[in-house]
Design goal:
Number of helices: 1
Radius of gyration: 24 Å
Structural class: mainly beta
Strand content: 35-45%
Distance between the termini: 77 Å
Largest sheet: 4 strands, antiparallel
Strand order of the largest sheet: 1-2-3-4
Length: about 280
């Protein structure tokens, strides 16, 4: 009996040695992000439809692609420049079929500069129809800010229907938070990249030729931050110290060669955000 077990174990070891592990991770697509002026992210427009979204700051349009990267809708014009040369970045916060007007024959989206005061907010159909527009309004994004809420996204599903919570900046009277009832419910979530309200740093333009602009969003007034700029060989080119009052600053890249560069933001030896930018002259 012991001899038979020994033969069995030897056979099992030989079988395992001859078996190669096969990866379950398969590359589907590679995206050359340098072709796009701003960003790419996935969005779920219904519980059975996930799309890819490309925003193009050069033409102030966006495209929607299917998961196989076939075009779904292209050259959709937005009501405001995605990047008008200052610190304000507009982006699509929600993309849905039935969230705001419950007409599934149309695709609608919320368009806003969520993390900047004094900006405008639109809810649009992709055919250009305006469903909602407000000046100096955004979704609350700030944790613990005066007049803010704990919500990072302005749509909330409650036991009494779906609510849209917006914050209006009135520079004379402070901030007013308005709560709206809306028609539908958001699709099951897809983690969207990037979410500007969660970034410490936004950079533009990217690619750049002369100057990179950093828009800094510190989360508290306790930490001092350090920003490292590195080249493609991980060599430190510049170390910049940031305080909580440093919101917008410029970095001269005229003497930089063409290529990819990296940045790393840290506080108390903890890395908070990393990213890259491209110099193209």
């Amino acid at each position: 009996m012991k001899k038979n077990l020994s033969i069995f174990y030897v056979f099992l070891i030989l079988l395992m040695a001859g078996t190669k592990a096969q990866s379950q991770i398969t590359l589907e697509h590679t995206i050359d992000s340098t072709l796009y002026g701003y960003t790419f992210y996935p969005a779920k427009i219904s519980n059975t439809e996930t799309k890819y979204v490309f925003l193009d700051t050069a033409t102030n349009t966006f495209d929607i692609y299917n998961l196989d990267f076939s075009p779904f809708m292209t050259n959709i014009s937005v009501p405001h420049s995605l990047n008008n040369g200052n610190s304000y970045f507009y982006f699509i916060l929600y993309l849905s079929r039935t969230l705001f007007d419950c007409d599934s024959s149309n695709i609608e989206y919320m368009f806003t500069a969520q993390n900047e005061p004094g900006q405008q907010l639109w809810i649009m159909r992709t055919d250009g129809t305006v469903l909602f527009h407000a000046d100096s309004t955004r979704g609350p994004y700030c944790l613990g800010c005066p007049g803010g809420t704990s919500l990072l996204r302005p749509i909330l599903v409650t036991e009494n229907g779906t609510k849209m919570i917006l914050m209006k900046d009135n520079f004379a009277a402070g901030r007013a938070i308005s709560i709206y009832s809306i028609c539908g419910t958001p699709p099951d979530p897809v983690y969207e990249i990037p979410n500007e309200g969660l970034n410490y740093l936004d950079i533009y333009p990217n690619p750049a030729s002369m100057q990179i602009n950093f828009n800094f969003h510190p989360r508290d007034n306790l930490n001092n931050y350090e920003l490292d700029i590195l080249n493609n060989n991980s060599q430190l080119l510049k170390k910049i110290k940031l305080g909580n009052s440093d919101k917008i600053f410029d970095f001269n890249v005229r003497d930089f060669s063409n290529g990819i560069y990296y940045f790393s933001l840290s506080a108390k030896n903890n890395v908070l955000q990393t990213g890259s930018f491209i110099i193209s002259k």
